[in-house]
């Protein structure tokens, strides 16, 4: 008897589960293929921190480093990194190719991020994204671009040119509105020029748990009963109201005109979905955010837990009045959500940049060790 894939019920509800992890041994040991074929995994995301742990903390990449240095001993550490990362991403993309085809080119994506050092440089982001797109040369690639103020025009330009974009580091509803507008602008521009829309896909990666980490600290500092009662509720409320905005836009004439021209919706992707507070349910940022036109990308531990926790109901549109009330209470308490999300964006850019620099430093150490041993 063939058993249904454990993630299929979520797929049936319109939510795709992706894995927020990549490492070279996943291809050799068949674990990624199993996740796709047996579990129903629909895609994968990566970031500098993930590659830092994979490349810097294991010897899995030494052979590839030797080969790359033998090919070109003068390439920079950053060039070396992208060579290794692109090889991993290509292997993953090829494994997800059947999902991409079976879904009508709306799933089966793997994300590769531009250098986080470019988060404040629009033109350099565009150049590097295009270069990575050409090098990877797979239709189910998504290029990750942070949703900084400087990133928004880069995102719009890249989408208009036909690249698939994963818009990352989103924390605020206001910035998400700007991202969704940029997506619609890009599609409208293509439509006006008679260019096809059907092959373009994008997700807007809305970070969840980190919002609670910041706000819980502020609520505990306030200490009032109203403040303490909000702990662990604000991040989900923030995400639900972002989804409500997506639903509002999709019901409007602007989107309907694009949908009639075969445009794909820009899905909301829930990122940072592992629970940071051990007192909270481990799937707090998963089972509360189930709904159509969404993706949830999970780190391995959260992914494994989800496999053994069947979810079969849409929850994203529940308790919207309570979600609005939570954010209104924050305002009444004098906690500035916009200031918190601005800080989270800056900290995210800084953390990814530091991980990237650490990774390049470790690659430099490893190339020196390999040279000495040769």
Brief summary:
Belongs to the transaldolase family. Type 2 subfamily. With 374 residues, this protein is an alpha/beta fold.
Protein model, in words:
Keywords: Cytoplasm, Pentose shunt, Schiff base, Transferase. There is one protein chain. The protein has 374 residues and is an alpha/beta fold. It has a single domain, classed as TIM Barrel (Alpha-Beta Barrel). 57% of the residues lie in helices and 11% in strands. It has 17 helices and 8 strands. The chain has helices at 8-12, 25-28, 31-39, 48-56, 62-71, 77-102, 122-136, 151-160, 173-192, 209-222, 225-229, 234-250, 253-259, 284-287, 300-307, 320-332, 337-373; strands at 15-20, 43-45, 109-113, 141-146, 165-170, 202-207, 267-271, 294-298. Strands 1-2-3-4-5-6-7-8 form an 8-stranded parallel barrel, surrounded by 8 helices.
Overall shape: it is globular
Beta-strand portion reads 5-15%
Overall radius of gyration: 21 Å
Would you tell me which CATH topology applies?
Answer: TIM Barrel
Beta-strand segment tally = 8
Structural class: alpha/beta
Q: What's the name of the CATH homologous superfamily?
A: Aldolase class I
CATH class, named Alpha Beta
Query: If classified by CATH, what would the architecture be?
Result: Alpha-Beta Barrel
Q: Stretches where pLDDT falls below 50 for ≥5 residues? A: none
Spatial sequence of strands, sheet with the most strands: 1-2-3-4-5-6-7-8
- Overall pLDDT confidence: 95
Work out the count of structural domains: 1
Subunit organisation of the chains: single chain
Order of helices and strands: HEHHEHHHEHEHEHEHHHHEHEHHH
